[in-house]
Amino acid sequence: MSTESKNATAVSAQRPEPLRFALRCWWVLVGAEIIHQITNFTIAVQTRGQLRDEIASSQSEEISPKLLDAATIMALAGITGLSLIIVGIIAWLVHTLGRAQKRAPIARRVLGYFAIYFALRAGLLFSMQPQGGIDVAYYAIDGCVQMLIGVLGLLAIYFASRPESVEFIEGKKEQQG
């Protein structure tokens, strides 16, 4: 067993219970966000007609249908890829917070901003309506996942903001600094 894995085991054994709950919420949130992004990509690919029309109208010359379809799917894949990179950053922040590294206070703060975004996104779901000719079940599943993400984000903020969690995170920073 390496020194780093022994240190990680010692840190996880010392974590206060609210911080453990916050980390669990964040890890489930990361998994649910990946599911949301995959579902969102699937819905977008199935309803890509509007995006395809916008790409076609922005071009001065006629584009072949196959090329237009490929450009549409590549645009959707690029957007999904960027979203997954952001989810990867969130996962890294959760990892940093869980290890109580010197950047843990910053990670806690940034994760708090992401949690507020996820909660606002979940709240805005009630003003959205399904578009296109896709089955409403896709939207219902994706909406449930987004609401779960919003609730998990708020729970994670609550648990990470508990005095014992903050003391543990800030205390580790002072010991390493």
UniProtKB/TrEMBL annotation:
Keywords annotated in UniProt: Membrane, Transmembrane, Transmembrane helix
Membrane-spanning ranges: 70-94, 106-124, 136-160
Recorded superkingdom: Bacteria
Stated name of the protein: Uncharacterized protein
